[in-house]
User: Which sequence fits this backbone?
């Protein structure tokens, strides 16, 4: 976690950092911004989907939060966009090895949604689920405090469908499989419940700085 904070500070200077890296030709594997075992994908942004990309129009997109909350609720596209806009500029890390520096996403902080449903004190974990059925579990603490977003823009453009558009979950301090594409909702629970990859041997939390790739790491 201390590494995550260091990165956040550096992220304010992402352009400078990238230029410096290019001029010095520093070996990518030694870049202190890269979590262990990761490489810099530079201009590549691989698509990793267990499902076929759904044909989901913004008018058909909804986002729901239920489970251990005082007031379960569903937002449509317009209602979600009425919440305060929030952006992320920083890095993302896929468990298959690629990382990207200085990516920008736009959307709304998950805190803004959670404030409206008011999580109960008993809530400790969430299962995020997609409109396609993909699921992933996270500690509630990992999606609060300004560290998680519902994102519908990338680089100032609408998020492409193959990358989760109209909207995806973004939890960039954890491995990117936690950032469910085509996000449909969060269910708040009083226990941890493995999602799709976690049920197939991947780590329950997935902190890239501690290289939590597989269960037991
Ligand atoms: N719905 C859904 N979300 C998903 C996935 C998926 O297969 N389905 N793959 C995860 C994984 S393993 C990664 S690395 C990222 C990939 O996002 P990208 O395709 O935009 O790079 O999405 C995550 N979210
Ligand atoms: Mo991934």
Assistant:
């Amino acid at each position: 976690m201390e590494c995550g904070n260091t990165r956040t500070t550096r992220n304010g200077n992402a352009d400078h950092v990238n230029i410096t890296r290019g001029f010095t030709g520093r070996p990518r594997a030694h870049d202190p911004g890269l979590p262990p075992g990761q490489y810099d994908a530079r201009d590549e942004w691989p698509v990793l989907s267990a499902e076929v990309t759904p044909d989901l129009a913004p008018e058909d997109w909804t986002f729901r939060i239920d489970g251990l909350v005082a007031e379960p609720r569903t937002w449509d596209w317009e209602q979600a966009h009425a919440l305060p806009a929030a952006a992320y500029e920083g890095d993302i890390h896929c468990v298959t090895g690629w990382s990207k520096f200085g990516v920008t996403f736009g959307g709304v902080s998950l805190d803004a949604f959670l404030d409206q449903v008011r999580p109960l004190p008993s809530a400790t974990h969430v299962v995020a689920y997609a409109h396609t059925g993909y699921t992933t579990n996270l500690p509630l603490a990992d999606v609060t405090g300004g560290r998680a977003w519902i994102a519908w823009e990338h680089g100032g453009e609408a998020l492409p469908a193959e990358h989760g558009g109209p909207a995806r979950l973004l939890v960039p301090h954890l491995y990117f499989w936690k950032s469910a594409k085509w996000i449909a909702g969060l269910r708040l629970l009083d226990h941890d419940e493995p999602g799709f990859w976690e049920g197939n041997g991947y780590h329950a939390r997935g902190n890239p700085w501690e290289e939590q790739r597989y269960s037991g790491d």
